[in-house]
Amino acid sequence: MATEEGAETTSPLDDVMADIRRELVRRVAADDRDSNRDVYDALEDE
């Protein structure tokens, strides 16, 4: 929801959902790195 000044206001629920999204992205990225460790290691060696 935008205010007259154009700034968005966020509810506590929006803040919690943003935190959850960030944590999910962090976990998926970490799992991807772990699952593909050999690929990442090979890229570092190039």
From TrEMBL:
Organism: Halorubrum alkaliphilum
Record-given protein name: Uncharacterized protein
Superkingdom field: Archaea
